[in-house]
Specification:
It is a single chain. The protein has 306 residues and is of the alpha/beta class. Helix content is 50%, strand content 13%. An eight-stranded parallel barrel has the order 1-2-3-4-5-6-7-8, surrounded by seven helices. Helix 9 packs parallel to helix 10. The protein is globular and about 50 Å long. The chain binds flavin-adenine dinucleotide (FAD). This is proline dehydrogenase.
């Protein structure tokens, strides 16, 4: 209920204006977002890669102007150049949302594909990779189709699948072929019961079934969850299917369970931190608040006087 409310607020211009213009919210936002500019993002990635890997995400989504989509594509090209120039390409990749590259525009699939190709080509030249984030349900088919087309030229493009969707077991089977990089997450949006599991137990059950398909397949599973039970389950599956530590990775979000991230990395497992940066942090931030009531309480306390 609370989560649904916050996800609704994440699309509300009035709430956006209020939260964005409040200086009081800045310290809370800073817990989840690495900074506004490229220098701050690179500094955050440098700190992470001492023991982990990183995926940098230039915040932004649901672009409704062609010029903004063009600018985002150029910014991503600059970002991967910078990753290469800083000597970070072996440990830092990028994550991108197709709606930031134009997917939501009229004729958006072609625009987003063209932009994603530019980003992937620049990433390949810099020696790094791209993972395409998954967004709300109406974009799932277009996103997966775009990933398939990108993979014809850039086989290492990563895709994201959301365990809360009823279709995802089938998508896992489809996409778990040789060297396919798949990030499995629970799913961050508010989807209806006709397409998504709604209870925690159902989502966790689906996550387990999907992860088994990926771990027993021929691809490279990227286990994106902070849930300790699922992290343990991933280790058990990796052992059961004879995967060594270079054949899958754990992924977590910047600012969430940082001690668990370093503890896992210290055991020799590959851990990648998703690091968002940029000015368009509002919807991302609201999704993080909705995932944990304690985050909302912390956020609201920042407005209390004294
Ligand atoms: P939960 O059951 O939500 O949380 C398990 C535990 O983790 C909680 O008990 C708590 O201790 C901790 N935790 C979880 N969230 C928070 C939080 N916000 N603040 C503090 N503690 C928290 N979703 C998409 O829909 N599309 C994507 O492309 C996508 N990419 C992602 C990439 C990465 C690397 C990760 C880690 C997640 C991504 N997600 C994406 C978000 C994901 O779908 C979930 O919304 C989010 O990860 C919370 O789910 P959980 O698996 O951690 O499990």
């Amino acid at each position: 209920m609370l989560r649904s409310l916050l996800l609704t607020a994440s699309a509300s211009p009035r709430c956006k204006g209020f939260v964005e213009h409040s200086r009081l919210s800045r310290p809370v936002v800073a817990r989840f977002v690495a900074g506004n500019d490229l220098d701050q993002a690179i500094a955050a990635a440098r700190a992470v890669v001492t023991d982990r890997f990183a995926s940098l995400d230039l915040l932004g989504e649901a672009t409704v102007h062609r010029a903004a989509a063009d600018r985002t594509a150029q910014s991503y090209v600059a970002l991967v150049h910078r990753i290469g120039a800083e000597g970070l390409a072996g440990r830092v990749e990028v994550s991108v949302k197709l709606t930031a590259l134009g997917l939501a525009l009229p004729d958006g699939r072609g625009i987003a594909l063209e932009h994603a190709r530019e980003v992937c080509a620049a990433a390949r030249d810099a020696g790094t990779t791209v993972t395409v984030d998954m967004e709300q349900y109406p974009y799932v088919d277009a996103t997966l189709q775009t990933v398939r087309e990108l993979r014809a030229d850039f086989p290492d493009v990563g895709a994201v699948l959301q365990a809360y969707l009823r279709r995802t077991e089938a998508d896992c089977r489809d996409l778990s072929g040789p060297s396919s990089r798949i990030r499995l997450c629970k799913g961050a949006y508010d989807e209806g019961a006709s397409v998504a599991f709604r209870s925690r137990a159902q989502v966790d059950g689906s996550y387990r079934r999907c992860l088994r398909i990926l771990m027993s397949g021929k691809g490279y599973p990227m286990v994106a969850t902070h849930d300790p039970a699922l992290i343990t389950f991933a280790g058990e599956l990796a052992e059961a299917y004879g995967r060594d530590r270079s054949e899958f990775e754990h992924q977590m979000l910047y600012g969430i369970r940082p001690r668990a991230q370093t503890t896992l990395a210290a055991t020799g497992l590959r851990v990648r931190v998703y690091i968002p940066f940029g000015n368009a942090w509002y919807p991302y931030f609201m999704r993080r608040l909705g995932e944990r009531p304690a985050n909302l309480a912390f956020f609201l306390r920042s407005f209390a006087p004294g």
